[in-house]
Hints:
The protein has helices at about 25-35, 40-55, 75-85, 100-115, 125-140, 145-160, 175, 180-185, 190-200, 210-220, 235-250, 260-275, 280-290, 295-300, 310-320, 325-335, 350-355, 370-380, and strands spanning about 65-70, 90-95, 120, 165-170, 225.
Amino acid sequence: MKICSKGVWDDSLPGITFDENGVSNFGKLQExxxxxxxxxxxxxxxxxxLVQEMKASGRGKKYDCIxxxxxxxxxxxxxxxxxxxxxxxxxxxxxxGFNSEIAVQNIFKVTTKLKIDLETYVVDYEEMxxxxxxxxxxxxxxxxxxxxxxxxxxxxxxxxxEGIKYILRGNDFRSEGKQPKEWxxxxxxxxLFIHKKFGSGIRLKTYPLLTLPKMIYSGLLKGIRDIRPYxxxxxxxxKAKKMLMEEYDWKDYGGHHHENLxxxxxxxxxxxxxxxxxxxxxxxSAQVLSGALSRAEAMTRLSQPFASKEELENTRDYxxxxxxxxxxxxxxxxxxxxxxxxxxPSNYSLMFRLxxxxxxxxxxxxxxxxxxxxxxxxxxxxxxxxx
Length: 387
């Protein structure tokens, strides 16, 4: 197996290439993102400018911004950051029926101590259950895409309702990297197709959908923008975790995004055991290039199991029971043909055509250049059309 000389990306990743020095295109993407979004003095300056814009937009209103919270370290610390800079956020949480008790308590502790209002959007569990089962039957790698899509849709929905112009999200490319699009791409059009084809006919009444027209309406007409503070600030996850534990009695939940039990199943069981996909290769490689850990340490962590066999099997059994999947149906799903994100219809090509044609309008949606745009240039080799 060929491994990138600068990280632990390897040739199991779709679309990966290596230059004469053994540096992968994924490594070059990471380096380019770090150049385009420097931290330090410039990053702080860019962030403080955004803070002033948020405060000006929120003048006379109850809230300046929305912060999506999951009980994880990134979103919990983001509430701390927002408070430190004098912002008045509304914390928004999505309940998909799989939030761990630790995550729920973490959200309560941080919002209570900071006196931040919390709004939890609950998706009818019968709808959520049917969608998640449909994604498993569809045989795609990232079966937790419905949760990701619902989180984003919920924040836009509430922003529209409350007249809030800014959404803060805890994504950090320096610790998360960029997953191959074949593994994780998803949108509302694809979700509706998969649910119709593999679902049980349940109508989606409470599940929030951010369709492409709704996204355009929210960005262009309502002026709602997506902000990623960690693109600009000197955020160090381990230090943030230590601080949260000391100041808020925040509790650790284990692995990356394991605050949600279905996400834990998807990342630690479904992906590695059914598809041979280890998303840690992306996360750890990003952390190597950002200086958070050494390449040798990343290799060591990759050699360790996600969890004990017993814990993983217990997580699988919990998901089967909660989704009401019999052992026979789960076995049928497990043995079915593996697909990727582009085996089903989506708006992927249309969105990039729009981005190419109307590139100046991207600033109406984001405070940053979306990593998917840069990935398309660096990994897929397309021309640099968006700035």
